[in-house]
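re: ur question from the group chat, yeah i did fold both. here u go
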Amino acid sequence: MNYLAHLYLSGEDDAVRFGNYLGDHLRRSQWAQYPEKVRLGLELHALIDETTDRHPRVHASRQRMRPSQHKFSPVVQDLLYDHFLAVQWNQFHPVALTEYSVDAYRRLEPYREAMPAGVIRMYEHMSQHNWLLSYAETDGLNQALGGMARRTRFASNMATAVQDLAPEWGAYEEDFLTFFLDLQAEVRRFLGPEFNLPF
């Protein structure tokens, strides 16, 4: 899953949310430098990634897109699932995505000094261009995939992924919805009833 899903699945605890946000940018050996709640967010990030990678509907999506996206299928699948979450946001959260996205950046801001330098640059770009909201639009998804394609050292079809995958769009969305319900249940089990979750 990508940034929108990771933030959403963190619930309302800002430290857990920050840890989950950092998850892709730290090695496990670096976790010890952070407070307990942030470490819990890092553990949650790892759980989300592990659950995603072993889920049969995620495997179905990746296999379906492999002929066009090849080894980049997991990257495309992550962004595509965030798109589906953004498009159907009102089914998952009571606060509109326009408000939620602004609030998400505001709540990460106090942790700026604890972000590695590369994460600060990404956070600034992300908040300035409101990536979380842009995922809801096909143009925003195209832009995100195009950016990924430009940054990779290897040739890819990510820039044309939306066009390439369009004929089976409904199947990808069905995969997402089935998977995401299972992922929410796994997160509820991991965090426990004391956490304020929107699901």
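okk and heres the other one u asked abt
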Amino acid sequence: MTAELDSSLTKASSAVKVAVGVVFNSAGDVLIARRTNTDHLAGYWEFPGGKIESGETATVALARELAEEVGIRVEHCRPLLTISHQYAEKFVVLDVRRVDAFSGEAVGLEGQEVRWVKPAELLQYQLPEANKPIVTAVSLPSQMLITGVFVNEQDLLNKCISATDHGFSHIQFRAPWLPPQKYVELLKLLDRELRPRGVKVFANTNFQLWGMFDYPYKHLSSHRLLQFSKDQLRQTELISASCHNLQELQSAEKLGVDFVYFSPVKFTRSHPHAEPAGWQALIDFCAEATVPVYALGGLGSDDLVQAQASGAQGVASISAYWR
């Protein structure tokens, strides 16, 4: 057994396992609570939850903790993220679940302050380091558009504007057939036209091209994961990566990516020779990921519920969404 594997197993066996609830109300606000002065990380804001006791599932533990801490009864929740984090004094594993339905009124039953905030406001609060991927997940949409074939510049722009009119706020601009200079030209056009609409356009290209390292939204294809260092990418506001297995996921997480795509879940026309991984592979992949995961490959809106039940942030697609 290698020293690295031995260390990982030791951490896992001694980890403090915690159930965390990302609770949304009908207005789309999310619940946070402030740790009291007697708690670890006193004064920090956090998503409510608590330690998973022996014999409890994460769902049972979360329901108990939310009832005890903030007085609400969980009626529906689903997996969101599993996060492992090493603090100076302990190693924690957070089983994070999104709560979309509950009864009761949230109050601080343990003397803590509680507050409903807009997802975009979360960055204004001091949260524990381990909560940062949760903030990212809260800010990301459930469906992600990847561009497909277009006739010309105007057709590309029209399709993207139509997508934003239908609620898409994040678009990955994928056009591997374009010469680099033309790709950069069209990327700048999309960014200029769509950013005022609140849309983030991700660049899927070679970032060593002129002017690309300063661009705030980047996507790494799986074969580019080993071409960059974390230092080269740290100024990026949001960065995603394509992954097909756990080895690529590990490489992506070491680079500090904010979210990943796992593909192909089903047969896809854009990659007809790729063997579908299936739903169980998605479940296994999401269980290992410490960042949000988008299910990709032959999927669309009809697959969203199953993808999220499998632990994914949502669904990404070319053919189902590109019109």
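fwiw on the second one: The radius of gyration is 20 Å. The CA atoms of residues 7 and 110 lie 36 Å apart. idk if thats what u expected
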